[in-house]
Amino acid sequence: MGCFECCIKCLGGVPYASLVATILCFSGVALFCGCGHVALAGTVAILEQHFSTNASDHALLSEVIQLMQYVIYGIASFFFLYGIILLAEGFYTTSAVKELHGEFKTTACGRCISGMFVFLTYVLGVAWLGVFGFSAVPVFMFYNIWSTCEVIKSPQTNGTAAVEQICVDIRQYGIIPWNAFPGRMCGFALESICNTNEFYMSYHLFIVACAGAGATVIALLIYMMATTYNYAVLKFKSREDCCTKF
Q: For residue 168, what is the enclosing H or E element?
């Protein structure tokens, strides 16, 4: 074979769906972990400076957030390795299914490993749906605070006595206890919080982190389709002449 034919043969063995899913997974996990880590730190700073001046009132929350930041490190490391493994498995199964390297052969061990990846990817996909939903909670909370500040800035309320009656009680979200002081902010004091860099950065970083979690869910869905299809083809290849591009 000439150089051109060899290149075409090699490109035929590329698992394009797994490659796209890997890039999307790496990007989504990087956005979720990086932005989420910084946004959590900014949230603690906002709470300590404005909503809960007594450290004992939010001590449990600080510990939980610190634990979540360590979990983020573990998630990033795990998905970096898992993405590489799934991409390598995609190259292997695609080459085997399309018989690019000689006679097609499959073993019970190989099918078992492929089936294990199918099961694990399904479990991770369901788990990341929960992570995606959970990451929308701080976005909702920050959006409510931001929208309240926009009401304060509006010409209808700005400069009137009604401004000081517009408040946000952070205790209603359950992240700090009801005896936390001051617990809520009103009027121009609340507007000043919305104008801080910590609030601006945390709000937008939580949005990006939520988008990253959504991208990871899409990547895992692509992985599900690719691994399931490859597993089915590996299992029935000896009885049915079919091929895959996954």
A: strand 167-169
